[in-house]
Write a structure and sequence with these properties.
Elements lengths: L15 H9 L4 H8 L6 H12 E4 L13 E3 L2 E3 L3 E3 L12 H12 L3 E3 L7 H5 L5 E5 L5 H13 L5 E4 L9 H6 L29 H9 L6 H8 L6 E6 L2 H10 L3 E4 L13 H12 L4 E4 L6 H9 L4 E4 L1 H32 L5 H4 L3 E4 L1
Parallel strand pairs: 4-11, 5-6, 6-7, 7-8, 8-9, 9-10, 10-11
Antiparallel strand pairs: 1-12, 2-3
Helix pairs in contact: 1-13, 4-13, 10-11, 12-13
Length: about 375
């Protein structure tokens, strides 16, 4: 850590919750609510955490190893741990370097970084940082704009195309509505253009400028036929993010998806949706090894990563903790979050008698 994060006498963060607490004093209330909040009564967000805490693992003993290797294959590549930095919008809200800093931290940690359609730096600049980058696509009303984003992502060297399928419209996020949340002038959707972007900076009582913009720009009628159309027009590995029903997972495989992400968007879309970890086992069964399965929503520790692996996931996506790290100390803060996550995962592997990820996926998980 650097700067104020290393004030004399301060105890350095030793877990992701510590980083979040440090960030609370460094982020304006409106921005903190935008990042931390969920949709509706935020019960789905709470359910993610409660459901993860209910998963208890049965450790093995006498593994014959004093170390554990958290690295392994992930989609078409390899990663230092089974973690992908999730797509998150407008990261310059948390730090001037925004996505550039977070992508550098991910590259140093040896994990993929997912660039959002709504990133506050152009995707080309983020991809140029180095490391493994994926690109997340929000389906635009203009199909030519969709194809242009996909083309740009491929030319920039992005290794996968992550299509978010659970946002036909933005969930009703009450904190943002109460705050009349808008983006400051220096933060924009750098990959997009056109008149609708003005909405992100227009403050109206009881409205969210971000939600207004997405309502104007995103196509709520996206369907399976659109994804089939896209599959025919790109050779990039296709990842569908926002799957909870096993029937949708099976259809994604039939469409040619190489991975699905079991996700309720961190509790930010359908209020009352099932917790992601609860939906995971049935999705794993439905795809039957025909594609990779990642878990998103609520991962807050290395133990949570191990829980996901034991429940059948090939890896996880981590979101908000990286943003809190950015807020605390830019690239160094984001790197700290990923370092803590890897250290916790390694310790959890050793304590559960797992020398590697294959063994982790063989652990027995029970519900407390």
């Amino acid at each position: 850590m650097s700067g104020s994060a290393r004030e004399a006498g301060a105890v350095p963060p030793v877990c992701l919750a510590d980083v979040e607490r440090l960030a609370e004093d460094r982020v304006p209330t409106e921005v903190r609510d935008f990042v931390a909040g969920g949709s509706g009564d935020e019960s789905t967000q709470a359910a993610n955490r409660a459901a993860l805490d209910q998963v208890r693992l049965v450790p093995r003993v006498l593994a014959g190893s004093d170390a554990a290797d958290p690295s392994g294959p992930l989609l078409r590549g390899t990663a230092a741990m089974p973690v992908v930095v999730a797509p998150m919008a407008y990261q310059r809200l948390l730090h001037p370097d925004g996505e550039l800093a977070a992508a550098r931290a991910a590259a140093k940690a040896g994990v993929p970084f997912t660039i959002s359609t709504l990133s506050s730096y152009p995707l080309e600049e983020i991809a140029a940082v180095g490391g493994s980058t994926w690109f997340q696509l929000y389906w635009q009303r203009d199909r030519e704009q969709v194809l242009d984003l996909v083309r740009r992502a491929k030319e920039a060297g992005c290794e996968a195309l992550v299509v978010t399928v659970d946002v036909p419209v933005m969930g009703r996020r009450l904190r943002d509505l109460r705050n009349g949340f808008t983006l400051p002038p220096h933060v924009t959707a750098a990959n997009l253009g056109g008149v609708p972007l003005a909405a992100t900076h227009t403050r109206l009582p009881g409205a969210s400028g971000v939600a207004t913009h997405t309502g104007q720009a995103f196509d709520p009628a996206i369907g399976w036929a659109d994804l089939a159309w896209l599959r025919e027009r790109t050779t990039m590995p296709l990842v569908l993010k926002g799957i909870l029903d096993p029937r949708d997972a099976a259809r994604a495989v039939e469409l040619g998806a190489e991975a699905v992400v079991v996700s309720n968007h961190g509790g930010r879309q359908l209020s009352g949706a099932v917790a992601s970890i609860t939906a995971l086992p049935s999705v794993v069964d439905a795809v039957g090894g025909r594609c990779s399965v990642l878990l998103d929503s609520g991962i807050r520790s290395g133990m949570d990563v191990l829980r996901a692996l034991a429940c059948g996931a090939d890896g996880v996506m981590v979101g908000r903790p990286v943003l809190w790290g950015l807020a605390v100390d830019g690239e160094a803060g984001a790197a700290l979050v990923l370092d803590l996550l890897r250290a916790e995962l390694r310790e959890s592997l050793v304590l559960s008698g797992c020398p590697d990820l294959t063994a982790a996926r063989g652990l027995t998980a029970v519900l407390a």
